[in-house]
Amino acid sequence: MTPEEHDRVARVGRAVRVARRQAGLSARTLATRAGISQAFLSQVERGLNVPSLASLYKIADALDCSPSYFLDAPSDGEVLVVRADRRSARSVTSAPSTPNVWVAQGNGAIAEVYQYVIRPGDDVEGWFRRADDLVLVVVSGCLEVQVRGRAPVLLDVGDCLFAVAGTEMRWEHRGVEDVRVVLCVAMPGARPVTRSSPA
User: Fold this and answer.
1) Per residue in 50-68, pLDDT tens?
2) What is the DSSP string of 77-109?
């Protein structure tokens, strides 16, 4: 581990310790609530162990805060511009009528931005979940979002849907015009969309 990486791990540990103390919790109580060992939590707080993203989510859930609370805020100079011609195109599914998605890789709090254009008849069915927090913005058209265990939500132009990591959902095109959607993934270390089996 480089000195810079060690400093970053130490800052995460200090942030966890400060949040725990502000919540009035002992290390044992927090570890129990988070489902991790007290020894591991102690190592994280002292900067001796690098917590995984899953562990940060467990700790954050137990403290009723966002995992981003433990991470460094970007400085004013950390700005990344990705020009349209530098994005990569990917197919959403392997079906012949699948829409393409344009992906731009980020450098911090927003790791990836996807731009979907979904035409009537495009195959966007199927449940999926992301391993990170996200926000979905409808730029044009009308999209129905189904979240497993909840009533479907109809999103019109300008509507936003925020979802925490692991939320399982599927989309359905509504109306006759193309739907344009921007999906922003909110955490570093974003993983590709994974398909899950239908209910």
Assistant:
1) 888 788 889 988 998 877 7
2) T------GGG-EEEESSSSTTPPEEEEEE-SSS
Task: Choose among 45, 59, 40: nearest CA to 11.
Answer: 45
- Residue with more model confidence, 67 or 42: 42
Which contacts (CB < 8 Å, 24+ apart) does range 187-192 have?
187/53, 187/67, 187/68, 187/109, 187/111, 187/132, 187/133, 188/71, 188/108, 188/109, 188/111, 189/53, 189/111, 189/132, 190/111, 190/112, 190/130, 190/131, 190/132, 191/130, 191/131, 191/132
| H or E stretch at 116 | strand 112-118
14: its two tokens: 């200090």
